[in-house]
Automatic annotation (TrEMBL):
Protein name, entry field: PASTA domain-containing protein
Domain PASTA: from-to ranges: 56-122
CDD domains: PASTA_pknB
Disulfide bond listed as a keyword: no
Positions with biased composition (Pro residues): 142-162
Low complexity: bias regions: 179-189
Statement: the UniProt record of this protein carries the keyword Ligase: no
Domain of life: Bacteria
UniProt keyword annotations, A-Z: Membrane, Transmembrane, Transmembrane helix
Membrane-spanning intervals of the chain: 26-54
Xref: InterPro entries: PASTA_dom
Residue span of region Disordered: 88-107, 130-191
Length: 310
């Protein structure tokens, strides 16, 4: 080893006497490939973490769309490499067809190609096409009206004063003997029953089970960019309603009073049932089964049953 090489290499005793952060920094000096390859120095570790965060940070910001007509809003989103995933009608004093708000809201940073839901104005006071439906099942086997009067008196008693056979009269306007019939209501056929994990800023089609489809979405799971509160948003005109920790039954959801308002999702306990009317007019019971944290934020775990229409 030459004298110059000996001078460049620190003595082991001197290295041990240096503070730990100085010893970590030596990793930078000994590495000829820089920070990202070795990452042994303290500064190198910080630089690698900062580089990873920068690379994985969403690059596209949702523009301000309120007041724009749908076509103009879609054009601005395309310019930002974003797409319209769904449109939801919302009563407003703005001109019909203009954007009331977006979800995620303006200023939210998203990955290229991410979807945005537009809430389009409809005349204030207009109600969704479906707010509640009552399904009545007609009992089967109920007795019809009794027979009318017969053509004349029936035959008289048979032979013998006692114990002999007799024939009951069927005419002469005699009413039928009252009868009681007990029926069991027919169960409503199930259209789809499954479970799914819905990520933040995504939605599900409760008719087909499709995840974040380009059309046909029924229930959206989002987060407010300012308050960071999570919410569920019905996407179909029939709306949704929280009915509590109850058994997910057809009758419960078929008669629930629904609306198109957002449903706060932060405090919904496990087991809560949300009734949703799908865009194809079917009632669906969505049950919250839990949450988890993923790379893109919180995930909502649900199972749901969608019934056929009567």
């Amino acid at each position: 080893m030459t004298e110059q090489q000996q001078q460049e290499q620190p003595a082991p005793e001197e290295d041990k006497r240096k503070p730990w952060w100085r010893r970590l920094d030596l990793g930078i000096q000994w590495s000829s490939t820089g920070l990202a390859v070795t990452g042994t120095g303290l500064v190198g570790v910080v630089a690698v973490v900062a580089w990873w965060v920068f690379v994985h940070q969403p690059k596209t910001e949702v523009p301000h769309l309120t007041g724009l007509q749908q076509a103009a809003a879609e054009e601005q989103l395309r310019a930002k490499d974003l797409v319209v995933r769904a449109t939801v009608p919302e009563p407003s004093g703005l001109p019909p067809g203009s954007v009331v708000r977006s979800d995620p809201p303006a200023g939210t940073r998203l990955d290229d190609g991410a979807g945005v839901i537009l809430y389009l104005a409809v005349p204030a006071g207009s109600a969704p096409p479906i707010t509640s439906v009552t399904t009545l099942t007609s009992p089967q086997g109920q007795p019809g009206p009794g027979p009318g009067p017969g053509p004349g008196p029936g035959p008289g008693p048979g032979p013998g004063p006692t114990g002999g056979p007799t024939t009951r009269a069927t005419g002469g306007g005699q009413p039928p003997r009252p009868t009681t019939t007990t029926t069991t209501p027919r169960a409503q056929p199930v259209h789809l029953q499954t479970s799914i994990v819905v990520g933040r800023y995504n939605w599900v089609d409760l008719d087909t089970g499709a995840y974040s489809p380009s059309h046909g979405g029924d229930l959206y799971f989002g987060q407010d960019a300012n308050t960071l509160a999570f919410h569920l948003q019905p996407m179909s005109p029939g709306g949704a309603a929280v009915v509590g920790q109850v058994s997910p039954e057809h009758r419960t959801c078929a008669t629930a009073k629904t609306s198109s308002a957002e449903i706060p999702a932060d405090d919904l306990p496990v087991g809560t049932v949300v009734c949703v009317w799908t865009d194809e007019g079917r009632p669906s019971a969505v049950r919250i089964t839990g949450t988890s944290e993923g790379p893109s934020g919180r995930n909502l775990h649900i199972d749901y049953t969608t019934w056929e229409v009567s």
